[in-house]
Amino acid sequence: MPPKPLLSKIGRRAAPRLRLSRPGQLVAVERVHRCILLNLSRTGAQVAILDALREGEGAILKCGVIDHFAVVTRSEFGLNALEFEEPLTDAQVIEIRHYHENFEERERRALVETARKWVNGDIDDDRAI
Fold first, then answer.
1. Superfamily of chain region 18-120
2. Does this model's pTM top 0.70?
């Protein structure tokens, strides 16, 4: 018997949602928007951005391992629902979940390392002369 897919259809959604809060980019025709990836599934995502996008507008969502073209299916109050042109793989969803689970620890380690370098005078700043 072949293994069941990791993610399956639940309720009215085409795929279950992974709730997140990760910074990303939404690369649209007119400009690149900084965004927060709020939730993710194999078939789409929800992002929060300051500028409204038009329904039907296409953009590339970039966040961690995600670099996918999507179409805006709903846009209201800074929240934008996206549908991916090609669904994500189970492996991509698992990787972004792992990225999300370890994000704070990586950020804390990077901050500690930056502080350590600053205290030791080991800076890589081009402005240092």
1. predicted glycosyltransferase like domains (2.40.10.220)
2. no
